[in-house]
Amino acid sequence: MGELEFIIALTEHRFVGMVFQPFLIRRLEKFYTVVRLVKPHDFEDSEYEWRPYEKELVKTIEKYSDERLMKRFSRAESVSDFFSRLDSGVFQRQVLPFIEQRMMDVASVLMLSPVRLFKKEAKYSNLYDEDVIHVPPVFARPEFYFERTELQTRYRLKVFMEGKELLLSKRTNRIITNEPCLMLYRDQLIAFEKLNAKRLMPFFEKDVVSVPNTIEEKYYSGFILNTVRDFDVKASGFEIREADISKKAVLSLEVDLQYRPAFVLRFTYGQENFLPGSAKQTSVSLQKDGSSYIFLKTVRDFDWEEGVIKLLEKKGLAELNGYYQLRGADVLEQQNALYHLLNWLGEHRDELKKHGIEVVQKQGDKKYFAGSGQLELKTQTRGDWFDVYAVVRFGEFSIPFIRLKKYILNDIHEFVLPNGEIAILPDEWFARYKGLLPYGKDKGERIEFHKHHFTLLQQSFEGIDSDVKEKFLKLKDAEKEETVLPSKLKASLRTYQEEGFSWMYGLYKNGLGGCLADDMGLGKTLQALTLLLKLKRSQQPIKTGETDKNGQLDMFGGDAPDEAVQPASLIVLPTSLVHNWSNEIAKFTPSLKVYKYVGLQRKKVEDIGKIARFYDIILTTYGTMRNDSEMLAATEFFYLILDESQSIKNSGSKTYKALMKIKARHKLVITGTPIENSLSDLWSQMNFLNPGLLGSLAFFQRMFITPIEKHANEEQMEKLQLMIRPFVLRRKKMEVARDLPPLMEEVRICSMADDQQKLYDKEKSIIRNTILSAIEKEGMNKSQFVVLQGLTRLRQLANHPSLLEKDAGESSGKFDEIFRMLQNLVAEKHKVLIFSSFVTHLELLESKIKKQRWKYSKLTGQTTKREEVIKEFQENDDNRIFLISLKAGGVGLNLTEADYVFIIDPWWNPAAEIQAINRAHRIGQDKHVFVYRFITENSIEEKIQKLKERKSSLADKFINSNDPFQQITKEEIVELFK
């Protein structure tokens, strides 16, 4: 038996006539036998290897299978019902044309593929070689011959196939489909590209068709005109000419089938119009000159048309269902789609005109200005302001740009020109100016911008005047200027600290406020003090008077100073940082006179203005500032500096409102976490520094907070970064690592809270008397326990009163400072080890950490799964805090993920502290480590710390001796409890 062969058979359908059907056949000895009719599901049959064109033929034929025809053209439940009830008119108008077009699709594939075509009787399953129908690879060419005489017009039709004429005879021809026409000619399937069978069939019976001249006018304007248009025609008695006419492309603004604005492209040849997708190749017009007929034939220039289409596509248009639209416009609202099209027209009108493309409008009753708007501007500087004078030209009309401000801010694209035409404001103007205009003030025909908006101006406006551009560059590059350090600075600044100082000095020179937002530990305080020392007034008023116990001058005697003297700078900070600032001023900038406007001391002050004229720096706390805001607001300060400026992140708070009332010539904020929870934190600080920089809070919420926080809008994010970049300097520790030593240690002195101080003083007095009494009665050796017990009790009070009595009502200055710094480190995404001698101290912190919902680890003597706890801290990026008791974590830990170490209750054993530090600062650590020791001011901790620093004999006896009580005297014990 032979191999399977795929073939197409021309066979009779019981209802629709001759159709193509696909079969698999197998050759026997002298004939072929049909194996089966092929359906698409047979492609899964592994018995036969299907070729792509065979699959295409099967799928095409399946489209007119009985079942598919029934579903397409009726709601009948069975095939027999469908054909029995099928209306003859519906069959002729809809069903038959559909079948015939699919039949032509099949013939087109057969013309170019090796698949054989057989003629098959419907009821027989055997086929023979003589049943094969040859399918020529080209279409047949019809040629019409017309001859006009005085009495009639005669015409003949000849058909040529591959250069040979076919003889048209009913005996040798059979029509298979009407339009387009497929004809069975002897043993060939003849296909015509456009000819309808009705034109062919008369010549099966006769050679010539005659039309009397009584109806020739109708005949010439109809049948002959269409024939001249679609086929090769040879004429005698009338003329056929190729028209010599102009051509142009017309782009018409209309609406598509969904009533959305779109372009319709038409190609115009004289009076004839062609759509790009039309298969019509020619057009013919008839002229009658007396008794003569002249046919003018217009042939389309498809190369030119294709060039026009490519130009439009290159400029951003895309064709869909015969309409041209901008790519991506389908997602726009209808009105926005219109604006985009008109903007596109305005942008490309000159080039369209250059290429002979005419633009017309058929869009409603409105007449749109189709040119482009030209913006001309001039800028100038005036003090702290930039003035922008701008004019927009729409053709012959000049419009002040300020008149368009409300249109751009409210997304109104249509602007009515004096002649009634509507100009569409370009999208580019909305993109470029909408983010800028809210910050401008209308001043007649100019718009006024504050200099702190210079980055937006530089980005938005082109053609800025040279003097304005120079000022832009001066502002932009302020941080790059090298500034000479003040000679009286008692510190060596690292490179990044010098850059920070220069940046702040540049802002000062330009009258702008800034936010120094370096990581914790990078010396923000020192950089700010360097700036204040650089700007220290050259002459200090001479004032005589006594100093108080804090070393501060008595301001309430003597002569008043010169009113013109530069006032002091007011620094507002958390209570826990007053001591730190005071110490750093004394250490690094001792020539700056400082006054601490805090606590009971401030009650003596009647006029803060007097203090401001005698001192360089006034330190105060947020609470004091809030309580005394009216007095402070009555004085102008040189600099108003906020440390830990996240304290004003809530713009509705009393603290923020009080600070906004305080007058200062310059402003600076210092923080490691300018954004803690929301972008509104940033707005509060930026608005304090440079009011109006980010607009109102409501505007900022609409323009930035919602798009960025809810929708992650990158464009708005970049715009916000552009606006604040000149005013925020943030360096992370890893960025300046080359300037840092591998280990940095700092002692953080913490003041006690008022209630804590009272309790401590009371307890210290009792312990002192108890110890002295015990030594008096029992001697030094027998009093060791009482002394150690007293020392431990005072240590606990210095840390937190709750270490002595659970849930004690008193607060702790040290605890507040530890937690404040911890908040900064968590926000900055650092990892910190917290060591304590007291497990109860760690538990207090743990309770507060839990309330913040921060991830943390804890290691004490009670911890059983040490490895799991350590692994969780090392490997979990969200776990940033490790609470460790000194006894449990002094050895055997490798915690190189941490880059900060807190020793929250240092004592007299430096070896234990060194071991704690080495948990992080050891081999494998690739980060620089900061170590903070927290010491409570005026406490037993501070006394021990001072002994360690002085390395006195008492320290040697009490710290380094195995049994200090054998060597220490009663007087030395009393010294500790003073």
From TrEMBL:
Task: Indicate the segments forming the Helicase ATP-binding domain, all copies.
Answer: 505-692
List the CDD domains: SF2_C_SNF
User: What would you give as a GO molecular function for this chain, any one?
Assistant: hydrolase activity
- InterPro entries given for it? Helicase_ATP-bd (IPR014001), Helicase_C-like (IPR001650), P-loop_NTPase (IPR027417), SNF2-like_sf (IPR038718), SNF2/RAD54-like_C (IPR049730), SNF2_N (IPR000330)
> Which controlled-vocabulary keywords does the entry list?
ATP-binding, Helicase, Hydrolase, Nucleotide-binding
Signal peptide region: none
Q: Which domain of life is it from?
A: Bacteria
Residues annotated as domain Helicase C-terminal: 814-977
A Pfam family matched by this chain, by name? Helicase_C
Q: Where are the transmembrane segments?
A: none
Question: PROSITE patterns recorded for this chain?
Answer: HELICASE_ATP_BIND_1, HELICASE_CTER
Q: Write the protein's name.
A: DEAD/DEAH box helicase
